[in-house]
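Major outer membrane protein, Anaplasma phagocytophilum. Tokens?
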Amino acid sequence: GKDIVQFAKAVGVSHPNIDGKVCRTKRGHTSQISTHGIYAGETNAKSSAGHGETALCGGHGSTANGAQTQAQNTPQVFRDFVKATLLVDGSKNWPTSTAAADAVQKATPNDNATAVARDLVQELTPEEKTIVA
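Tokens:
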């Protein structure tokens, strides 16, 4: 956990454009702009308007056909993931997220490690990949 936090901090400081491409939260409901996931210590996003928190890198917010109680109009990114989900020091949710029993997205082994690796491979340009390597 500590290593990914140090990596994220280095990327965020020296290359904020890369930081913005990794762990971008998604909308829980495609027609609701305010349903991007909000990083937290535990995923609780479900089909209820009040629940839009995610502990999964790139996770989504509420899947309800209405605004989340805590609106999130823009995606959160890598730095937000580290601050709110990994608790700044990497002591929680690495390599696997945690989720409430009734959350739509369930935690699976190594889901956060897999999601970060996927974003580094799929979302970055060849030049950006060279920078993070």
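The two ends are 18 Å apart (CA to CA).
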